[in-house]
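Provenance and format

Records in this collection were gathered into a single text stream. Each protein contributes a sequence line and a token line. The two records reproduced below are adjacent in the stream.
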Amino acid sequence: MTGSAQRPAALADAPVLVVGAGLIGTSIALALNRRGIEVHVEDVDPVHAAVAASRLGRIPPDLALATAEPVLVVVATPPDTLAAVISAALRDHPGAVVTDVGSVKLRPLAELAAAAERGSARPADLPRYVGSHPMAGSERSGPLASAADLFDGRTWAITPHGTSAPAAVSIVESLATACGAVAVQLAPDDHDLAVARVSHLPHLMAALTAGALRDAPPAHLALSGQGVRDVTRIAAGDPVLWRQIVNANSDALQALLGEVRRNVDELLSSLDAGDAGRVEAVLLAGAAGAAAIPGKHGGPPVQLVPVTVAIPDRPGALAQLFSEVGALGVNIEDVRIDHDPARAYGIVEIDVAAASGEQLAGSLRAGGWAAHR
């Protein structure tokens, strides 16, 4: 959507400044740009700044604000720099609302409050600051990985603090809406516990699992299937960025990791004692937790089943399979591809609604595919 008709009123009259031209910052700029909102990007790295400008269809150095002061400054810098950059934005743009899109909210807020107490920041500026966090991202990083639709349909947490001005909260909510996201308000401490549970802890678990593969014999790794790829995929994220995120949210993570440690210790004891019942209880708890994850668009969980299809490794084969599934009126909820190292074939697992699984497998077999439910 483009054009002024779709601009949120709060963002229509003055530009938005994005500080930080990484994946998230550049994606925000692209999302606002497609809505016809004037947006400018700054970055300490001139290469990132130039790439962001090119993604916006501009030629460097057309990056800085011209004469109009921004209505909103979005700080999209690494976690370790957030408080300093937020403080600078509040100082340099006294008429603007300032938000950040960092993964952790309590630490930068505490650092801002401490700066105000020391006198290095003005307490009167804090009502213009409202934290936020779009729940979207990628294992890739940098402006080249950015996309205007990165936030479409995603949750965007808005985390006002005790002195945040209502008008400032409204402007940050308008940012989330303009980027295609669904705004949800959370207290900063509740946000940090939530992301520790659903994002930071899973990343650490993926890193631990992937780390156990580092010195594995090649013969063991040759047995890798889609399961281990699913579990370890997010471990490929930028280690430097994730070190900052984990350190910034250490309090919430320590509590959750302590719970995991107790469960691992109990599982080890159960294995040592041959307590199959307790082992099964751990697996049942895992299945229950997986089933509790909301369905797409935040709706209720939908029971899915995989339909496995052998597919030749040739151009157009996957498109043909998807076309035939679509012609059968079945919606593909998720898909995974595992390549057979010994043959020119792949195994495609298509997740569909449970009620469609058997019928889809039968229809595909009738069409000549090697498929089973």
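Adjacent record:
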Amino acid sequence: MQANDAANPAAHGLERHGPGVALERAGAPPGTRTVEGRIYGDPPWNQPGEGGQQNYSFRWTNDTVMNRAINDYLRAHWEQIRSDLAMNLEHDATFNAGASVGEGYYNQRMFQPGAAANPQATFITTRWVTIVIRVVPGNPPGFYIHTAYPTVNFMGGNVITQ
């Protein structure tokens, strides 16, 4: 992922979800990108192009877990990925990695009125991953991972560690 993100300016998997992103707001210097801070829309999340306030935000547990989950997915689904890239110029999927791959927060009030104005971040770990792969035009065309990040599937068996 490090080489992927470095070679593709639009890629942002590590910048927003890498294991080096600070987890908690407490003690982080002002303006520091934190996983918890995304639930509250803290800077820099509230800047244009940064995704804004979200109801859930996760980071990878570590580089080994991240690379293994992504590579396992690519190998197991390569025919579908290749077909999607040829037909749609993009492949996106959310999948169960089988074991915990990330940690982060969700807004416990996300389905309540006024949730954005008064969020309540709750810590959980997750085994779910979202991946978006895009075509790089050329002859021959290539592809890059636009983003890959741990995500949440409330119906699909997250590991809750409150």
